[in-house]
Write a structure and sequence with these properties.
Elements (H helix, E strand, L loop, with lengths): L1 E2 L10 E7 L3 E8 L4 E5 L5 E8 L7 E3 L12 E5 L2 E9 L8 E9 L1 E2 L8 E10 L5 E10 L4 E5 L15 E8 L5 E5 L2 E13 L2 E11 L2 E10 L7 E7 L4 E6 L3 E7 L5 E7 L12 E3 L7 E5 L3 E6 L9 E6 L10 E7 L3 E8 L4 E5 L5 E8 L7 E3 L12 E5 L2 E9 L8 E9 L11 E10 L4 E11 L4 E5 L15 E8 L6 E5 L2 E13 L2 E10 L2 E12 L7 E7 L4 E6 L3 E7 L5 E10 L9 E4 L5 E6 L3 E6 L9 E6 L1
Antiparallel strand pairs: 1-10, 2-3, 2-9, 3-4, 4-5, 5-6, 6-7, 7-8, 8-9, 11-12, 11-18, 12-13, 13-14, 14-15, 15-16, 16-17, 17-18, 19-20, 19-26, 20-21, 21-22, 23-24, 24-25, 25-26, 27-28, 27-34, 28-29, 29-30, 30-31, 31-32, 32-33, 33-34, 35-36, 35-42, 36-37, 37-38, 38-39, 39-40, 40-41, 41-42, ...
Amino acid sequence: MSNKTLAGADVRSGSYRVYAANGTQQALSVDFDTGSYTMTDNLGVAESGSFSEDFTEPGTYVFASSRVTAVANTARFRVAADAIVGAFPFQTAYSSPAAYAVQPFVAARSFLTTAAQLDGTYNRFGVTRSPGGPDSQMLAMRISGGGTLLEFCFDNAIYKIDLCPAASKRTYTVAAGTDDAWVATNTANANETANFRMARIGGQNVYLSAGLSTTPAVQFLRIALPESPNWPTTRGLGASTEGSWGSNLIDTANSVRTATNPDGSYGILALSVGGTFSSQPEGIRLVNASGTRKYYAMQNGLLSVVVGTRNPNTQGYVQINLIDTGTAPDARNGRYKVYAANGSRQTLALNMDSLRYEMTDDTGATASGSFTADSAEAGSFVFDSSRIASPVNTARFRLAADTVVGAFPFAVAQVTPASYAVRPFVASRALVKAQAELDGVYNRLGINLTAASADSSITQIQVANGGTTLYLCNDSVVYRIDNCPAASVRTYAVSAGPTVDTWHIVNVANPADNGNFGIARIGGDNVYLSAGIVPSTPTTSVFRIGLPERATWPGIAARGGATNGSWGGTSIGAAGYARTQVLPDGTAATRSATLVTMGLNGPVNMRLASFSGPEMHFASQGSKVFAMVGSRNPATGGALEIGLID
């Protein structure tokens, strides 16, 4: 058995042979002491850089590479003894000029050199790349005779090797090649040969082969795992040929993949897993048998591999995962798109296991630190931040499915030099990407911020016509959109925004009036979100939240932040509002208001909140989010509260 390591403090450092999904063999040198790597391709072209651990997913390392130009860097890897499984921006097969795409790979540095140790029955998956398009392969194989004989079953059906029809079986002799490789030669055609290596990964043999064939022109990857009747529940982490990185939880009934895509979107795909058949290897399972996109899966103790069936919408797909045998991480870990009440969009990364966070603004500046559970309020967590200089830290957050609602010390809008104040935010990793799913009527509450003043925006909007049109009622009276006077209706065209989960609106009568928004799925609702600098007035920043119009107004309890820096709990009834809050200076107070409907012509899911004196606000609620904004007068303009409903 051969093994190549570097003399260094970290035993994981060293040189690995890479078998890549673009159909090439490459060489990876990694140094965990310096956090550096070099990937050298089959033509001798080297790409070097650094790597760092993703704190939201400990044990996963991110390759830094200028080849990665996507919104999210999904070039990552995980390590086991003498093996690395990951994804790298390899050259796309047959691209000229060279183009790069993040693709999966398996790398090993421990290979069998004794023929007798090759023996075994295996299931082999493969993908090919050719000028004509990708393809897939699934078959059974066997090495016997002390490593001297190799049999493949090439058939349209996947047979156990013992049941393979005679016309479909090909037999090869096996002899030692060079540099730990083995050469298989077809006994019926000496011109047909196949080179492979047998890696030892997780205490098992893993057949690996990749390279170029000229007749016809294809680049291929082949991976084979030992045949086994065992099918345990496993959780693997790895990449797919679609460029995504994520986890795959697979058992005898389901395969659930949770992944981040190169466009920065996050998704969960749950598919059924089929059983075994008498003629088929027990170590291969059909995934999504009743769907249009079908796959086959196999696994051993440390690797799981999924390959697309030979159909136009799946052929050439492969997903390679390194099985994680440790405790499953908190499902809430990950990255969320933030819409902040200082009029900015940011990214929040959370690790609920290590209690660490990173908040990254649109310039790439990152504020990071720890957070702790609030012992006085179950389900709330307190951000620790050097930006907090007040006597009481009111920067907190709460979580729902794929959602974070809270308050953070963001930079105060439009102010130079930067100063910081706790402001509310809504963050989501479940943003709508299909335009037709944008449709709905929303009660949109917002604030407009300059360096010296703040104002409010209260209106109802409708997204219609398959997400292609937005209607806004721009009137001093808050009307339902269907009751809005014709002269007050603004019409906007909706098109794809700058990212896959944002949408661009342009006023058809005034193109200078434009902006971007997203629709988050929160508690089964569509929630409209927008934040940023007004393109036509760059001295103004805005924030908007739109909750869906509905006929009911249930009693709720919510907890969240407000633009006065407070954090508190809010109770809403049919006709009353009460909030118990703490301000950054330590002042505790209870505020109350009466609630009245908006009248026959106003939004149904909106209430006018009247506090003592002339103070009035407008409130709306969804299944999981409550929002309230001050009326447009100097005392309340720009006041905003956002809470996550219990």
